[in-house]
Write a sequence for this structure.
């Protein structure tokens, strides 16, 4: 038996690393991967809570999160590729204009 | 005791891989680190008794999503980005205190509040059959809406990726 707080602490650490990654990196692809990291940390906490309370609803919720994340990644990468086609550079600092 | 040792090993692997993703400059290395991280989270799902999610994690995340990421990194000229000095270094250094504060807050929320033990795989509820039943009864509408969402995403990606000719 593992204390529930261990899972939550691990989830907190991974989430923080994801947030820090979003802040410190300049490559939009790595920022996107850091977002996935944070999303997975939240999923882990959700599953741990669900199992502790003994009902499978948490797992169903995580299943939906995964489906939405798949759609999100597909659209997000397409947007990044489209931006790269226009800009020919890949740095988040270049993307300060809302339109041009 | 065994379960705790296994948890600590897997958790260490997950944190190390996450740090590798954030701290290494090479985006491809970052993607591979993220695969390791997703795999270790799948192992934790197995330990929690969520076999279905462990399989879905490997297939959807470590498989499909990461292949997409690696493709995108390859298409967008690897190694050419994030070179040279950072023009906003002092602002990015602010991430350290901010991240520390966030971690402290989350840990303070967690520690002591949720000390009740989580059952390990052998005694955990929620088999694959139970989740399948749940998805096709209580969550039938969201489940069907998910297919619409994925279809919309697919059409949107085609529209975005289409060449401008």
């Amino acid at each position: 038996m593992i204390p529930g707080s261990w899972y939550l602490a691990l989830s907190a650490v991974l989430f923080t690393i994801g947030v820090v990654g979003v802040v410190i990196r300049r490559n939009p692809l790595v920022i996107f991967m850091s977002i996935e990291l944070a999303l997975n940390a939240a999923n882990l906490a959700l599953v741990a809570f669900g199992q502790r309370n003994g009902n499978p609803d948490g797992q169903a919720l995580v299943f939906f999160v995964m489906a939405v994340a798949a759609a999100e990644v597909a659209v997000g990468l397409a947007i990044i590729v489209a931006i790269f086609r226009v800009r020919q550079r890949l740095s988040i600092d270049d993307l300060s204009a809302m339109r041009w | 005791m065994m379960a705790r040792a296994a948890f600590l090993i897997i958790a260490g692997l997950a944190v190390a891989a996450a740090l590798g993703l954030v701290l290494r400059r090479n985006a491809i290395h970052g993607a591979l680190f993220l695969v390791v991280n997703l795999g270790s989270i799948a192992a934790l799902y197995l330990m929690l008794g969520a076999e279905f999610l462990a399989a879905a994690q490997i297939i959807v995340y470590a498989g499909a999503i990461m292949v997409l990421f690696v493709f995108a990194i390859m298409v967008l000229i690897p190694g050419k980005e994030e070179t040279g000095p950072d023009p906003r270094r002092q602002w990015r250094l602010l991430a350290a205190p901010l991240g520390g504060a966030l971690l402290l807050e989350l840990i303070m929320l967690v520690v002591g509040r949720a000390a009740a033990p989580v059952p390990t795989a052998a005694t955990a509820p929620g088999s694959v059959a139970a989740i399948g039943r749940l998805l096709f009864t209580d969550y039938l509408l969201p489940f069907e809406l998910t297919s619409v969402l994925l279809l919309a995403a697919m059409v949107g990606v085609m529209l975005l990726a289409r060449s401008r000719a």
Summary: The radius of gyration of chain A is 17 Å. The first helix of chain A runs from residue 4 to 24. The mean pLDDT of chain A is 87. Strands of chain A lie at 2-3.
